[in-house]
Amino acid sequence: MSVLIFDSNGELWHTRAEELGLDYISMPYYIGGQEYFYDLGKETDFRKFYDAVRGGEIPKTQALNPEDYKRILTPYFEKGEDVLYVSFSHQLSGTFQSLNLALQELKEQFPERTCTVFDTRNISLGAGIQAEEAAKRKQAGATDQEILAFLEEFSQKIHVYFTVDDLMHLKRGGRCSGLAAVAGTILGLKPMLTVDAEGKLSVIGKISGRKKAIRTLADRVITELTDPGCAVYIVDADCPEEGDKLRDLILEKRPEARIVRQIVGPVIGSHCGPGTLGVIFVGDARN
């Protein structure tokens, strides 16, 4: 018997995870000298977090260590359960080195137990939507092998596009040079980013002005959405009015789209900053 889990960097809302019977690993972040663990919005004070960042606090994230992973996984193994872990992109964090070390040690203690890790090659709800679909199939009786086969194909159909409001947050995370961040801020350029097929962040364009950036996000959904049966997630980092505007633009042209609105959690928000706006949906397989 296996248990399906994901991590809170997949950002599926806590009520949806509970509906699907999904366990999750809470990922850490630091702000104001305190450590927190993201709980998929269950008790998260989003207002406090984003107000602090807007006020000058610099949030940080940190990888879990091997002891953390051993603490998380040991209870499953002690109960005789295997684990299927649908994880966020291994290209975006060193935390999976710690996971591998933990699994090596746990294998000695629990030689009959397994933890299979599927790399979604995505982040935020780009990973969460894969965990969601995997859980739906598990509830319907699919085996781990059937779920993994599904995810291998499905993962390449997840389209993620987002734009940030302040390039300095990307600069701190090493995604944008200091000179480019300052120049882009002065010129009002809004980079359009995606997660590529390898699970890395990639800049696909620089757009002049916020309104045009929002329209570009809407056009991506309008032209690339192929499966309106799956949710179209619109996520915002404390800019709900713009998220609602984006929703309205999409529905004007694609009224059949099933849109879910959600706020960006503090871990992802630590890297992209307030004002980030993104879309996640199912389209054709990406190159």
Question: Brief overview, please?
Answer:
By secondary structure, this protein is an alpha/beta fold. The chain contains eleven helices and 13 strands.
- Indicate how many domains the architecture comprises: 2
Instruction: Give average pLDDT, whole number.
Output: 91
Hey, roughly how much beta strand do the residues contain?
Answer: 15-25%
Instruction: Quickly name the level 1 CATH class of the largest domain.
Output: Alpha Beta
Rg measurement, Å: 19 Å
The portion of residues assigned to helices is: 40-55%
N→C terminal distance: 35 Å
Structure description:
The protein is an alpha/beta fold. The protein has eleven helices and 13 strands. The protein has helices at residues 14-20, 46-54, 66-78, 95-109, 125-139, 144-154, 167-172, 178-187, 210-224, 240-253, 266-272, and strands spanning 2-7, 23-25, 28-31, 34-37, 60-61, 82-87, 115-119, 158-163, 189-195, 201-208, 232-236, 259-263, 277-282. Helix 3 (66-78) packs across helix 4, helix 5 (125-139) packs antiparallel against helix 6 (144-154) and helix 9 crosses helix 10. The two termini are 35 Å apart.
Secondary structure layout plus pairing:
Layout: E1 2-7, H1 14-20, E2 23-25, E3 28-31, E4 34-37, H2 46-54, E5 60-61, H3 66-78, E6 82-87, H4 95-109, E7 115-119, H5 125-139, H6 144-154, E8 158-163, H7 167-172, H8 178-187, E9 189-195, E10 201-208, H9 210-224, E11 232-236, H10 240-253, E12 259-263, H11 266-272, E13 277-282
Parallel strand pairs: 1-2, 1-6, 6-7, 11-12
Antiparallel strand pairs: 3-4, 3-5, 8-9, 8-13, 9-10, 11-13
